[in-house]
Design the sequence.
């Protein structure tokens, strides 16, 4: 029995998939921590802080939010912040996204020594 020719639809699908994959590679953000999106924002006390969002799928431990002093449970999306100055990465804190957004309207509820 003779074979059929491939339909033109199939070849178009693979072409668009290749084009989409190559455009996604060119748009990937480059930054610290393996290409993770890190931005700089003003934080508490007028200092500049580096801010990195953590998706819920990567949140695997419990943390205490300094904005509301409640737990950030595993599986909850949040942000990690640290001062921009050299050596500031040792002062990383995990915040609820909403608490970090509202940091200008309230003070910290917890202080670290």
Sequence:
């Amino acid at each position: 029995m003779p074979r059929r020719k491939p339909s033109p639809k199939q070849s178009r699908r693979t072409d668009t998939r290749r084009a989409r994959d190559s455009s996604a590679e060119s748009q990937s953000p480059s930054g610290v921590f393996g290409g993770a999106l890190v931005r700089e924002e003003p934080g508490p006390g007028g200092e500049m802080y580096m801010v990195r969002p953590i998706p819920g799928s990567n949140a695997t431990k419990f943390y205490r939010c300094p904005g509301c002093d409640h737990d950030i449970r595993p599986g909850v999306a949040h942000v990690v912040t640290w001062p921009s100055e050299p050596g500031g990465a040792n002062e990383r804190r995990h915040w609820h996204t909403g608490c970090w957004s509202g940091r200008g309207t309230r003070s910290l509820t917890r202080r670290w020594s």
